[in-house]
Structure formats: C-alpha cells, structure tokens
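Internal tracking record. Fields below are filled automatically when a chain is submitted to the structure queue. Please do not edit lines marked as system-generated. If the sequence contains nonstandard residues, flag them in the REMARKS field before resubmitting.
Queue: standard
Priority: normal
Entity type: single polypeptide chain
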Amino acid sequence: MIRKSFFASLTLLAVSMFFTCCGVKNEKSGFKKPAFPVKETAEFTVITDELIGINAVSDLLCGDNWICVYAYDAENQCNMHLFDKSGKKLFSVLRTGRGPNEVLFPLTTSFDIESATLDIFDATASKNITVHMDSLLASDGKSGISSINELDSYPEKLKIWPGHRLEGRAVKKEGHKRLTLLNDFGDTLSTYDSFPEIENKDILPRLYTFHSWFELSPDFTKLATASCGGEILETFSLSEKISNISTGYFIEPDVNLEEGSFPYAFNERTVFGFSDLFVDNSLIYTAHDGKTLAKSKDIDKRSLFSRIAIYDWNCNPVKEIQTDYRIERICVESDSDKMFAVVRDNDSSTYLAYIKLNITK
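SYSTEM-GENERATED OUTPUT FOLLOWS
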C-alpha cells in the first residue's frame, strides 16, 4: 500500500508539472501562455483572386471536392460562395431576404461531415435552413436548399446530429443552462452549467456570445469551445453526459463592460486572442494572435491573427505556425494535411488560401 501511494504521488507530481509547463491551468497556476513543443514558420499559397465584395466571413467549410465560404457579398446579395479545391469559383447561393430559401441573420450553423448537410439557424426569421451540399453542387446551385419555421428563439450556439441537439447559452434566462444536450423529442439528456474560473466573473457572459467558438468533433463525442476575448480553451466529453475534459487558461481576458459596446470594450491591457476554431477527432486547430495589444497604435494588419495554434483534446499545446497573412476563418482537410483559410493582406483584401500543417498523428 505504501509503495502504491508513493508511485501515485510521483505520477500526480509528474502530471502536475507537465500541465503547468504546457500552460494548462491547475488550481494555483492561473493564466499561462502555452509552451508549444514545435514552432515553425510557413507561407500560405493563395488560390483565388481577391474576393471582392466579401464581408463578415462567418464560416468556412470543406468537402471532398469543394470549399464553401459563408459570408455576405454586397455585390450579389448572396451568403454562400462555392469554390473547387483549386480556387475556381463555382457559384453563389442563399440570398439575403425573407423568402423561403433566403436568410436574414444566421446566428449559428451546424455542419454534418458524413452527410454533407449544413444547417443554418436564422434567429431573425425564426427558421432553420438546411443545405444538402451534394445536391447543391450536382445542380449547380439550383436545388438542395430547404427551410422550415422552427423555434421562436435560438440559443447563441446550436449543433444538431442524428438523434441529438446541443444548445449553448451565455446569457441565460430562467431554466436555461450553459450547455444542454437533448434528443430528437426535446427531452433533456444532460446539462452543464459551469464557466471557466476567472477573477472578473462579470465578463463571462460576454465572452461566450455568438462571437465565441463552439465546435463538435466529427464523431459527435466531443465539444471544444473558445472564448471571444483572451484565450480560454475548453473541451467536453459528450459520450454519456456533458463533462469537462480540460480547460486551457492561456491569456486572461482583460476587457471593459461599457454601455453601447458589444460584446465588450478594449482597454490598454487587452490582448487579441482566437479568431477561429476547427476540430477533428484527435486535434484542435485555432487561428490566433496572442501578442498584439488591441489599443496599440502601430498594428501590422498582416501579422494580426497570423498564427496557427494546434492543441490536443486535453488542451495540451502541440504546434504553433507563424504564417504570412491575417487569418479570418479556417477549415482543415486532415487527409491531405492542408488547412484552407480565408486570409487578408495589409490592404484588407480577402483571398482563399491553403497551408501545409506537417502534422503527424
């Protein structure tokens, strides 16, 4: 028994030292920038001309032979723009409006890789728009989109997959939990109602609005969330009930709550954090900054949010890549080891590009 306790103590000590070194918070360490065991520099390969008219890019999706940029285009009033993997523009669909297959305000989306089905939840029109990507591509955008009126209100985050529905709420009303897992009949299977432990708890709801990131693993067993201020990364298991796997406290969210500023206002200590999140079954990929002060007078636009940070599902840092463009949105094609991205240059011109990650799994 003494021998077992001794080795257990050594194991706990080793685990504690490992997580502290890697930047994953234990009870006493507070925020700590991640110590990446591998750091590299790499360049994006741009595959399109400037995406003129594309604004407010909210999502980027990849399929077997296509890329979808979800963003409002002021020129053609469409919100979904399809390209092939070489960067050739195929077509744009899903116009802005109140029609049956039109969208007003896409609060959140849910993409099922296996069925290549995209669900878009329009909070303003209170409807769910479903896009069957295979049908859409086969018809050159002429079919594959349907819509139904669904809920009177939507949570900030929503993911659906066969037999399940996962809701995420930051600003909670009576009876709401932060995370709720339901079945197809609306029965609650599990809830989770804790937020990360930070000193300024008043800002927590603002960090997890629809501006934050909320991604489901392709096998539907795990969830990763990232704060929209600072850098807090959380992972959850969904196998039997919602349970926290790990929380990485990397950069403290130091922001002000001011009237008229949403989700918050910058101060002299605010550091830019994550700009997007993508996950597969084994790794978490983020585009981030992690160094630039938000109120700095001399910000290099091209280096802002120009780094890729990769973690495992225990929030341990795996690799960081310094790139040559500002990264808006990301999507990883694991089989080819490529990350596709919407990127911007110093003039804020927007392009589609890819980069090799050189990840060994």
